[in-house]
TrEMBL record:
Residues 1-82, 267-335 are annotated as: Disordered. Residues 1-11, 32-43 have a biased composition (Polar residues). Residues 100-225 form the Microbial-type PARG catalytic domain. PANTHER family: DUF2263 DOMAIN-CONTAINING PROTEIN (PTHR35596), MICROBIAL-TYPE PARG CATALYTIC DOMAIN-CONTAINING PROTEIN (PTHR35596:SF1). InterPro entries: CHP02452, Macro_dom-like, PARG_cat_microbial. Residues 271-285 have a biased composition (Basic residues). Coiled coil: none annotated. This is Microbial-type PARG catalytic domain-containing protein. Residues 311-323 have a biased composition (Low complexity).
Amino acid sequence: MANTGSSSGDTPKQVFNPGIQKASMEPRSMYRQKTLSFRTVRSMSRDLAEADPQPAVNSRKIPRRCQDDKTESPQRQALRETSQETLDLLPALLNRLNTACEARQSKKVSFHSLRRLHSQDCPRFPSPATIKVINEDTLNVAVRLFASAQTQRPGPSASRPRPSSCPLIVNFASHRKPGGGWLNGALAQEESICYRSSLALSLDRTDYPLGLDEAIYSPYALVMRGDLASGHNLLMSPSTPPETLPVISTVSIAALYRPRLRTIPLNPALRRPHSNGRHERHGSGGHRSFGGHSHPHGHRNSGSQRRVPPRSHSASPAISSSHPHTRQVFERDRDRNLSKAKMRLVLRLAATNGHEMLVLGAFGCGVYANPPAEIAHCWLEVLREPEFCGNWWREVYFAVYDPKDEGNFAIFQRVLAGKKV
């Protein structure tokens, strides 16, 4: 498979260093719904700056719209302010922990640059991991896993966590923009992670756009905020010093964007023979391929191609409410195989870097309109491939956040919950 993005091999990256100067620690935001008061945040910023006299890395400033813009939603305005506060607080916080360099490091890998796992490297835990499917935010699950690992870890609690004690999460990334739309108030899974952690500091703009076969591994991301339901409150307090904040590792990888799907009956006796469907147009046509695969985030048009408007999708197209006896699958085998190759890359990164706890998820099953049942089955098939047998992990969680009960959580629970891998 051709590498369609910029390639930098496995060379570690250090990014987000536009210049060394004292960063302003006073947040500009007046947004304080459910969060700490202005005085509390200002006091915390001042305390961090005084505790760390070193110059902090200058934070990026986000573009601000006119104050009289009446068309913007209050939530988007609030999230934009939250992103600015996060950037304001991180430099002094990371300098205090002496982890500013770690927070900027990342490594770009591809299908071809990361080798297959060798069985002799397997830690061979006493028993297989039992998959748990949780209807919750990705970071919330990872934070609980981190806390559990710390209670079982010998030595002082303030010492730097080992990779094996840091859960690895999958960031459903934008293929073209580091952090997606987090600086502009967007709210999908990637943006949610960036609002709450230092992940965005490790995403190097020169690594974008991500190729179909590429991912970015960020070994260190400090979690310093709660979730949206808590108002993105800061986790630091007199009883929670910065040294005890959760640390996670992340694989940022882009799912296929609106691949072609076809509808099949759930009863196998009613199914017609499946072809790879290059000329098939039943079910859902209208989406291009690039390099033999659907482009992960949109159309790439050549001069001879006619632009076709995207079709509409429900958030969970696997089982239609109007047709409960059917579900949707990938129309083309190559799209299914590419999705599995991306999952394989995630698992290789996890094992190669010594991660014992995984937080996976409904990869591309939101606005990207990948079929949830197919994605769940793909995960299970890859996890059970011979390469990953032998008990590589202690814990395998699927965080499938489905607050509106649109079906994704129920599908993943049915396919994956309780399975041994």
